[in-house]
Automatic annotation (TrEMBL):
Belongs to the cytochrome P450 family. It comes from the Bacteria. It holds the Pfam family p450. This is Cytochrome P450 like protein. InterPro entries: Cyt_P450, Cyt_P450_B, Cyt_P450_sf. GO terms for molecular function: heme binding; iron ion binding; monooxygenase activity; oxidoreductase activity, acting on paired donors, with incorporation or reduction of molecular oxygen. It comes from Sphaerospermopsis reniformis.
């Protein structure tokens, strides 16, 4: 029996009041109970310093995954080895190579929107750009993006509802999507794009199998749901804050700062998980070995002990403490691609419009755990 079998709950992550306003609910918990236990999430860390302490001790707090994932579910020397194999796919030269295609996709998406008019910035802008760019990056047909988007929605729903049957079906669909792409490359003998290069990769004298590539792409593809959510969040704040929008139109050189600062303050991903390998004490609470710990990114990134005026957007803020892409040895491998997509989307959006504003005064519906984006985002564009 572990401690979790009889630990009283400090909070309920599924409380409707929490789900209705995750940002401020987590802010309150960070001050009231910074290391909190719940049956649904086990141990959750809300303070920036505590999250960083876990990130800085990968021997005590190891990464964990329900599915095989390379390198995300690996630890130690094995993780380092595979990360070094995959890091070149996100190099500066690779990003420079994919940027024209990303810009073409963003331009096509914006030109398809009727202006002046009202559009859903999530379904009509954020998701098409994120998932179509992902397909282009991997060398997949552009027609695949909607299938991947539907998979992403299903994956998030299954995670929230703890629906094991749906999760199994989602896992089968994911494997089918990747396997079809691999087999299509094999039939056409395509070797010069990302998927083709992964197919040619050899480790320890063995060429990667379909299953290996499925494990590699798992987090790359799932992460694009987070990228789409981040794009939606940035657009929402630009639509709501006309002064900020005007400033970026007048000073586009500030866009790189904006795409880091806005999702710091209003993050797209709630948490990631670690597991303790031995007993650990965090902020005065002792956690046994074998316990699951959730690193609450969106609470840590709003911690006033790490950020002055954390719930405000400051484009001149130093970003070293920003945990938008995690930290430590498991820092997000795909961060350069995510930043590219965010930057190009905002640049293209502002270049193709004169004004963006919220289309409704009603409270916008937010996603809930594991995400924090918008379900829909009606905006007026002219």
């Amino acid at each position: 029996m572990t401690m979790s079998d009889h630990t009283p709950q400090d909070w309920n992550p599924r409380d409707p009041a929490v789900l209705a306003d995750q940002l401020h609910a987590y802010d309150e918990l960070r001050e009231r109970c910074p290391v909190a236990y719940s049956d649904a999430m086990h141990w959750s860390l809300f303070c920036h310093a505590d999250v960083v302490a876990v990130l800085d001790d990968p021997d005590t707090f190891i990464n964990a995954s329900l599915h095989r994932a390379i390198p995300n579910a690996m630890n130690g020397a094995e993780h380092t080895k595979y990360r070094e194999i995959l890091a070149p796919y996100f190099s500066a030269s690779e990003m420079a190579s994919i940027e024209p295609k990303c810009r073409e996709i963003a331009t096509n998406v914006m030109e398809a929107i009727k202006m002046p008019g009202t559009t859903d910035a999530v379904a009509d802008i954020a998701e098409p750009i994120a998932f179509r760019t992902m397909c282009a990056f991997l060398g997949w047909p552009q027609t695949t993006w909607e299938r991947v988007r539907n998979w992403s929605h299903g994956n998030q729903a299954a995670t929230f509802h703890h629906d094991h049957e749906a999760a199994r079906a989602i896992a089968v669909e994911y494997e089918a999507i990747v396997t079809e792409a691999i087999e299509d490359h094999r039939r056409q003998d395509i070797r010069d794009d990302v998927t083709g290069r992964l197919m040619m990769t050899e480790v320890n004298g063995h060429r990667w199998s379909n299953e290996d590539i499925i494990a590699v792409l798992r987090n790359w593809i799932a992460g694009h749901g987070t990228v789409a959510a981040a794009i939606g969040i940035v657009i929402a704040h630009l639509a709501e804050n006309q002064n900020l929008q005007h400033r970026l139109r007048e000073q586009p050189q500030l866009i790189p700062a904006a795409i880091n600062e806005i999702p710091r303050m209003d993050g797209p991903l709630v948490a990631n998980t670690r597991v303790t390998t031995r007993e650990a004490t965090i902020n005065g609470r002792t956690i046994p070995a074998g316990e699951r710990i959730s690193l609450m990114w969106i609470a840590a990134n709003r911690d006033p002990r790490a950020f002055n005026a954390p719930d405000e957007i400051h484009l001149d803020r130093e970003q070293q403490a920003n945990l938008l892409y995690g930290g430590g040895i498991h820092y997000c491998l795909g961060a350069p691609l995510a930043q590219l997509e965010l930057r190009v989307t905002v640049e293209t959006l502002l270049a193709h419009t004169a004004e963006i504003s919220l289309a409704s005064n009603e409270t916008l519906e937010r996603e809930t755990f594991p995400g924090n984006g918008f379900v829909t985002l009606p905006v007026r564009i002219r």
